[in-house]
Amino acid sequence: MQKRSTIDSIEITRRAADxxxxxxxxxxxxxxxxxxxxxxxxxxxxxxxxxxVKPVLRAIIEMSDELTQPEIISDR
Length: 76
Description:
about 80 residues, mainly alpha
């Protein structure tokens, strides 16, 4: 059985709330998170990586990092 890394659910909840509060449209940010998670899932499948973080959680973490640290993305 594979061991999963522990992710603080309170931290994920806070990050998701930050994303929703920063967005002008809750539906749109939800769809963006879902699309990012879908892309992460297919990237993991293509690369053969066994990532321990679920795609939705990974998408929330990445998007909240982009929100708080805009210098990590260069094209937006």
